[in-house]
Structures are given as structure tokens and as C-alpha cells.
Specification:
Order of helices and strands: EHEHEHEHEHEHEHEEEEEHEHEHEH
Number of strands: 15
Number of helices: 11
CATH superfamily of the largest domain: Methylesterase CheB, C-terminal domain
Largest sheet: 7 strands, parallel
Shape: elongated
Helix content: 25-40%
Number of domains: 2
Strand order of the largest sheet: 8-10-7-6-13-14-15
CATH topology of the largest domain: Rossmann fold
CATH architecture of the largest domain: 3-Layer(aba) Sandwich
Structural class: alpha/beta
CATH class of the largest domain: Alpha Beta
Length: about 350
């Protein structure tokens, strides 16, 4: 049985979250009303997973995550207010080692959380499967990749990730030199309200111009977009080295929207230039069909290895298709992506 510690300064929220989890067979072994007490509860009970509020007295959720990762590495699911401030704090917690997050639908204290019980239970179970050995902060300062090579013109890169993905996506993009001139499409399973902030962070930490995708926009070399939460991102057209994008809200695939498969399949259909697909850490099978589609048109396909994945679901399902060219660690991924477009000496 999955064992959880629930940390939230609201007695109401602790009770509602605990009741939801226990009604679905997840044992809540302790509750805590601030980060300091939560850290102690993790040490005492050694749970499989922790749900962690962000804003709390004495020790907030970010500080608590950092302390847990340093003393008793345990998967932490952040419960975040659906605000700009909540989004920024959530990304800070992910940097410190939290594996995933769920946006509280109504803010800090919400009676609506019970209406999202399925999402909460799914996120908790997914987080509980995460490997604590992968939780160390991702180093984005590695300058070992050589950047003075010549590359094939007009390459497109599609990156898909879910649980544990934000830090890994950041590392991958930060490893890509601007002169590689990719058009980059990032599909990270993430709700609306967070994808714009994620794009801002990627923009600051990579050499690429990164923004949240908009319907009808066109992107060229050196530009990247993050799929907007709540929308599938399609490649609607390709010409003169530029991608034309479309956002749509058709049915979810694999229970998510945006779905990696939608972006990869439409890229395989529309892009005639060099095309590379990368699938990273996450739960589920989204991306497997997309990898097959890109492989079928001669594109390169790469997957993150199990040792560096928080959750080895998405890459594993893609590998099972037999269409993945190479399986690599996070540290190797940037160099491998560049090798797919390097001109022969």
C-alpha cells in the first residue's frame, strides 16, 4: 500500500486531501501543519510520497522540499495556488527536487479540491513511483558540448515530458547552442497558467527565444515554444524553414492535453526538413505513437534512460515500439541531439 504524509497549514485542506487519498487506498501515515513538522514526519514515518503546500508558516514548502531532499529523499508532490506567484514558487520547489505538482483549483483553500480527486490520486500514485535517486538539482552550467560544428539547415526538434520533466527539459534546452538553429516544440504535461511561466524560465536559461505557443504563430530557427496548457499543439504547416502552429481543444489523448503524440504526429506529417524527437521522464505512454510517426518518416528518435528518469514510463513505452534510435542519460542528451543534425566532416 502507498503511504503518504500530507503537509498543509489549512486543517480543512489536510482533512480533505487525506480523506480523498484514504478513500482510494492510499494510507496517510501523518499530517503536518507546516514545513518543519512535515520534514520531521517524513523522517519518522519514511512515506512513499509527500503532498506539500507551498505557502506555510515557520518553514514554507520550498524550504521543506530542500530539507527533505538533503536528509530523507522522498517523492514530493506540490499543491500550488493557481496564481503567478504560486507558479513561480512551484518551479522553485521543482528545482529543489519536488517531482511534480497539482494546481489547487480554487486557490490556497479550496472546497473544489474534492472535485479533482481523480487527478490528485493519479498524481500522488505517479509521484510515489518516482525514483528519489534522480532528485538532485539538474546542473545547467555544463559547457562541455562543442558548439563550433556545422549543422544541417532548418532542423526541427520535438521534446515531450511529463512527471519530473521541467528540470530535465531545462537541462536539454540549455545544452543546445544557438547556432544549431533548431525550431523547438516542447510538450510538457502542465496546466494552463503554468506553461507561460515555464516558457519564461526556459527563455532565461537557454540560448533560444522561448515563448508559450499561440494559435497561428510561426517560428523559425533559434525559436522555441512550449505547448499551452489545456490545448493540443499541432504543426499546421511548414515552409521556408518556418513552422506554422495551431492550438486546438479536441478530446484529451492518454488523459492529457497537450499530448506529446499530437505534436509529434503532426510534425511527422508536415515537416520535410530534418526532424528529431526526444522523449523524457514521465508517467504513461504519451509519445510512443509520436516516436513511431517521426521514425517512419526518417526522423531521429532519442529517449531518456531509466537511470536518470524520475519516472521511466514515457521513455519505456517509446523504447518498446522498437523505433527509438538511442537511449541516453540527461547529461548525454544535448550532445546526442546535436549529432542528429551535424554535417559530415
Amino acid at each position: 500500500m502507498t503511504r503518504a504524509v500530507v503537509v498543509d497549514d489549512s486543517h480543512f485542506m489536510r482533512t480533505v486531501i487525506s480523506d480523498i487519498l484514504e478513500s482510494d487506498g492510499i494510507e496517510v501515515v501523518a499530517q503536518a501543519d507546516d514545513g518543519e513538522t512535515g520534514v520531521a514526519a517524513v523522517a519518522d514515518h519514511e512515506p512513499d510520497v509527500v503532498t506539500m503546500d507551498v505557502e506555510m508558516p515557520r518553514m514554507n514548502g520550498i524550504e521543506a522540499v530542500e530539507e527533505i531532499m538533503a536528509t530523507n529523499p522522498t517523492p514530493v508532490l506540490m499543491l500550488s495556488a493557481h496564481t503567478d506567484e504560486g507558479a513561480e514558487a512551484t518551479f522553485e520547489a521543482l528545482e529543489k527536487g519536488a517531482v511534480d505538482f497539482l494546481a489547487k483549483p480554487g486557490g490556497e483553500v479550496s472546497t473544489e479540491i474534492s472535485a479533482h480527486r481523480d487527478a490528485l490520486v493519479e498524481k500522488v500514485r505517479s509521484a510515489a513511483r518516482a525514483d528519489p535517486e534522480t532528485f538532485g538539482e539538474v546542473d545547467t552550467t555544463d559547457d562541455a558540448i562543442e558548439t563550433d560544428h556545422a549543422y544541417i539547415e532548418n532542423p526541427t526538434l520535438v521534446v515531450g515530458a511529463s512527471t519530473g520533466g521541467p528540470r530535465v527539459v531545462e537541462r536539454v534546452l540549455s545544452d543546445l547552442p544557438r547556432n544549431a538553429d533548431f525550431r523547438v516544440l516542447v510538450v510538457q504535461h502542465m496546466p494552463d497558467g503554468f506553461t507561460a511561466r515555464f516558457a519564461d524560465r526556459l527563455d532565461r536559461r537557454s540560448e533560444y527565444d522561448v515563448s508559450e505557443a499561440e494559435d497561428g504563430m510561426r517560428i523559425g530557427g533559434g525559436e522555441a515554444v512550449v505547448a499551452k496548457g489545456g490545448y493540443h499543439l499541432e504543426v499546421a504547416g511548414y515552409g521556408n524553414g518556418r513552422l506554422r502552429l495551431r492550438l486546438q481543444q479536441e478530446a484529451q489523448r492518454h488523459g492529457v492535453r497537450p499530448a506529446i503524440d499530437v505534436t509529434m504526429e503532426t510534425a511527422a506529417e508536415k515537416v520535410t526538413g530534418p526532424l528529431t524527437a526526444v522523449v523524457l521522464t514521465g508517467m504513461g505512454k504519451d509519445g510512443a505513437a509520436g516516436v513511431e510517426a517521426i521514425s517512419s518518416v526518417g526522423g531521429a528518435t532519442l529517449a531518456q534512460n531509466e537511470e536518470t528518469c524520475s519516472v521511466f514510463g514515457i521513455p519505456a513505452r517509446a523504447i518498446e515500439t522498437g523505433c527509438v534510435d538511442r537511449v541516453l542519460s540527461v547529461e548525454e542528451m544535448g550532445k546526442a541531439i546535436l549529432s542528429t543534425i551535424r554535417k559530415s566532416e
